[in-house]
Design a protein that fits this description.
By secondary structure, this protein is an all-alpha fold. It contains twelve helices and no strands.
């Protein structure tokens, strides 16, 4: 090793560090995958705590006891989320058949225009009986799997809500425990890094929720003015999709344009596309810089790579968690860089004085 030049030894050292970090990361991802039933509620609870933290702190400052404040905050989130889910589900149920019919009509029009003879959705419908006969044997197992998935999702949601209560109530104890576990004199650094990471996630969740609400309201109003069927359901879809940056807005906007194309024609579809694009321009040039100016700013390429990695690891849930986790990592990096650049508080005076 000593026979190698100094640049080669440095490169080898960096390669060893990168391989070690990659190995640790891979083991961590595998463990999270095996323990996803426990890991997922914890991550969702952290996101919920970041979103609900301001309300809890306001109640505590108002003189409410910590446990009562945490309970009131959880009750408020249950009421708000339950009401939002009811509105979204009702809107999608009322307009879901109409939206699906419009999408089916658009697909049939595209198939007639671009498809070859003897292909398309009509052939698929004509072979539906054969498909049912071939795959009907697995219907019962699919139903059982679906029921177990729903039960698991409900259990994780309940666990996440309970964890939100404990995270809110015992947040001060978490910081004290972190300081006690920090080695040597790194307690202040560990606390500052934890606060910076949580602040990044907190700002991201608040800003994304507010931006999603504005996007959904603007697009819903535009679709109502254009008399596009299922405007309320499409607006709800836009609100949910806004939590997946870039990709969610693209998919929900594409669905709205396709529904307008199938039911109202090309001219109205172009107007709907203009509404969607105008809202996206408003979000990218006004809402994002103003609302999330105090959080970690990430390049769109970094966000897209994080979304792709999250989707490959955990599907839709990974896409939802990828950007907040990346924002926390950027916050930690910024805090560490800022502390490294700070001059020592009590050090020798090394400033150069001219004679």
């Amino acid at each position: 090793m000593l026979l190698l030049p100094e640049p080669v030894r440095r490169l080898a050292a960096w390669c060893a560090v990168l391989l070690l970090v990659a190995a640790v990361g891979w083991v961590g991802v595998q463990l999270c995958g095996e323990l996803r039933t426990a890991v997922t509620p914890v991550l969702l609870a952290l996101l919920g705590t970041a979103l609900l933290g301001p309300l809890y702190r306001w109640l505590v400052r108002a003189g409410v006891q910590r446990s009562v404040a945490a309970g009131l905050t959880c009750a408020a989130v249950v009421a708000v989320v339950g009401g939002a889910v009811y509105i979204v589900v009702t809107a999608l149920v009322d307009s879901g058949a109409q939206i699906l019919a419009s999408l089916r009509g658009a697909a049939q029009a595209v198939a007639r225009h671009f498809g070859a003879s003897g292909t398309g959705l009509d052939d698929l419908a004509s072979h539906a009986r054969e498909l049912l006969r071939r795959f009907g044997g697995t219907a019962a197992s699919n139903v059982v799997s679906g029921v177990s998935l729903v039960a698991e999702s409900i259990a994780m949601a309940v666990l996440a809500l309970l964890l939100v209560f404990f995270f809110l109530r015992d947040s001060h104890r978490a910081l004290a425990a972190l300081r006690s576990l920090a080695p040597g004199g790194s307690a202040d650094t560990a606390e500052a890094v934890a606060r910076r990471a949580f602040a990044a996630v907190e700002g991201f969740m608040r800003g994304t929720t507010f931006i999603a609400l504005i996007d959904a309201l603007c697009i819903t109003v535009g679709l109502l003015v254009l008399r596009v069927p299922g405007a309320i359901g499409l607006g709800a879809l836009v609100f949910v999709g806004a939590y997946i940056p870039y990709l969610g807005a693209f998919l929900s906007g594409a669905v709205a344009v396709l529904v307008a194309l199938a039911d109202r024609g090309l001219v109205i579809a172009l107007w709907a596309l203009g509404v969607v694009l105008a809202v996206q321009v408003l979000e990218g040039h006004v809402l994002q810089p103003v609302i999330q100016s105090r959080t970690v700013q990430m390049h769109p390429a970094v966000v897209l790579v994080a979304l792709t990695a999250g989707a490959s690891v955990a599907g839709i849930l990974g896409m939802l968690l990828a950007v907040p986790v990346t924002a926390a990592a950027f916050g930690v990096r910024a805090e560490l860089l800022g502390r490294r650049r700070q001059p020592p508080a009590h050090g020798p005076d090394t400033t150069r004085r001219d004679p």
